[in-house]
Amino acid sequence: MSSVLVVDDHPMILLAVRSILERNGYEVVGEAENGVEALVKHRELEPDLVILDVRIPKLQGIEVIRRITASGLGTKVLVLSSMPAEILAKRCEMAGASAFVCKKSGLQDLLQGVKSTLSGYNELPAPSEFKFITDQQVEDFRKLGRLTDQEIMVMQYLAAGATAAEAAREMMLSAKTISTYKCRLFEKLGVRDMLQLQDFARRNSII
């Protein structure tokens, strides 16, 4: 029986993922609500697979992926995110993830991703699979490609309404650092204020 560690800061997601995995013969050996806890439990439990969201408190998910895949324990990582694959899949692959599943696609896609990953296959969409309908989408994707992983995470928090202090606490950074990232976001995305930043994030399913 394959063992799985599930990492997400939403209790209902943890419950739903645990339920579908256990119904299909997988052993959920642990759960974590933030990146630091995820790394501790990964070391303690040595699961075959970690399922995680990249937007988790204390240590952002892409850094968690890097550390898990560099640990030498042979653990596979499947990313389960509400953000579009166009934005995150390549970043997750470069960090070492084996699969990317969008939460909006339903938990059956998650189950297929788990099966494929544990069988040694990658379930990461190729750029050729991404479909852009409008010039605006193409331009937004180009701008997003200029952002660092950390800048994308900061944008998620700020666009969702978090203050700089709240984002700093969740990401274990200083408020000054968050403010610096905010300035960089405005410059790279070509937005003038928080309303425009929120509109950009909403348009691209980042919040």
Can you offer a commentary on this structure?
There is one protein chain. The protein is α/β, with parallel strands linked by helices. It has two domains: 3-128, 3-Layer(aba) Sandwich (Rossmann fold), CATH 3.40.50; 135-203, Arc Repressor Mutant, subunit A (Orthogonal Bundle). Helix content is 53%, strand content 12%. It has helices at residues 11-23, 35-45, 61-69, 85-95, 107-118, 135-144, 149-159, 164-171, 175-189, 194-203; strands at residues 3-7, 27-32, 49-52, 76-81, 99-102. Strand 3 (49-52), helix 3 (61-69) and strand 4 form a beta-alpha-beta unit. Helix 7 (149-159) packs across helix 10 and helix 8 crosses helix 9. The chain is globular. The N and C termini lie far apart (36 Å). The model has no long low-confidence stretch (mean pLDDT 92). The modification 4-aspartylphosphate is found at residue 53.
Superfamily (CATH H level) name of the largest domain: Response regulator
| Second rung of CATH, namely the architecture of the largest domain | 3-Layer(aba) Sandwich
**CATH level 1 class label of the largest domain:** Alpha Beta
Number of strands: 5
| Percent helix range | 40-55%
Give the termini separation: 36 Å
Order of helices and strands: EHEHEHEHEHHHHHH
Any low-confidence stretches, pLDDT <50, length ≥5?
A: none
Indicate the proportion of strand residues. 5-15%
Biggest sheet record: 5 strands, parallel
Structural class designation: alpha/beta
Count the helices. How many? Answer: 10
Q: Strand arrangement, largest sheet? A: 2-1-3-4-5
CATH fold node name of the largest domain: Rossmann fold
What spatial form do the alpha-carbon principal axes imply?
globular
What count of structural domains?
2
Average of pLDDT: 92
Rg, Cα atoms, Å: 17 Å
Keywords: DNA-binding, Phosphoprotein, Transcription, Transcription regulation
Domain HTH luxR-type: 140-205
Domain Response regulatory: 3-118
InterPro entries: CheY-like_superfamily, NreC/VraR/RcsB-like_REC, Sig_transdc_resp-reg_C-effctor, Sig_transdc_resp-reg_receiver, Tscrpt_reg_LuxR_C, WalR-like, WH-like_DNA-bd_sf
